[in-house]
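Rhodanese domain-containing protein
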Amino acid sequence: MYSPRLALSSVIKGISGYSKGHAVALGRWKTFQLLTLRMISDAAKEMEPNNNTIVPFPPPPSVGFDEVKRRLHEGSIVLVDVRESPERVDPGRIPGSLHVPLSQFKDAFHGDDKTFEAHYDFPKPKPESENLCLHCYAGKRARVAATRLQELHYRDFCVYDGGFQDWEEQGGPILRGAGANLIFFDQVKQGLEEKSIILIDVRKPHERFHPGRIPGSVNIPLSALFTAFHMSPEEFAFTYGFDKPCLNDGNSDSQLVLHCLRGKRAQDAADKLALLGIETGVYKGSFMDWMEQGGTVERHMDCLDVKEGLEEGNITLIDVRDNQELETEGRIPGAKEIPLSELENAFQLSKEEFVSKYGFERPSQTDLIVTSCKIGKRAEAACNMLQQLGFRATFYKGSYDDWRQHESTE
């Protein structure tokens, strides 16, 4: 096969012995000159880089046990295990690690974000992400996966070369078996009724609006879980609207149960909390199972729902903002007012005490209570609180800001 590079090499080696006199004698000197120039030109083009040239990238940096463990505790790392599924059962998995098998790696990361999240139940890392880290058992497969990511323009990730083997040797916590303690529909339903479980929904807040939420569940998104359980009890209660579970001190009678849409993120959440020494249960099937089993599903109310409910008198709208906010920002006509900090105690007062303090009759447990605040976050916390007290409650998504926006456009 003709190769300009090899041909040029041959010409250069033989040109000194191929004299002008010989070429003239053969009548081919001109042809010889043209051929030589062509070879030089072709060889030069062959050696120039082009758009199809694969330029090797430097290997991503390696991180060790201490950094991986620290960043897992901080929630500042997305640790992806590229081993196959059976290996995560036995010999086990690193708590907090996520899973994309090497056999699916390139297709998974080449696909769109929505398909990735639906299949693997965590957001697809962006190419510019600096918190992505790969691991396998001892490093080899993680490096293969790293090469595949680089081909897809990922640049700033790292590799835990020691992998699961190093994690185990260093004494890191390990989860073995098929998963955390599995909890089923009847146990969840009974536990919520008896208040013997704390059911934490680890989905994103918007998923609780649609397709809905399990009454009595509280919300800490998976991405915020580590940060939440590192908060002080006061900061936790202010942020999430319920008391921080103290499940590793032996003083709690409540079991912590996690759920999501189908169960995978709940399992990931259980892995994360295991790093903190917190034992949890996972609701098998999670929200999808709850709906299939006929469990009650609650959804938020929007502006039209609230207006209609107030006009027809079939809801009690309670604004949980404090008095200063109400005076500064304004009120929704027809709303009652109880600050969030007083809500739990208020609904444990007698009917007479309640009327005396707040100026309206306390709703019964069959009346529909709708909570609101400024943007909806405290309203959801208030709704959770009322449901735990046995009241029928939902909340106004968007709350006062949404009401004011609709009023200004009408």
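thats it. Residues 15-20 have pLDDT under 50 and may be disordered. Residues 246 and 252 are 6 Å apart (CA to CA). bye
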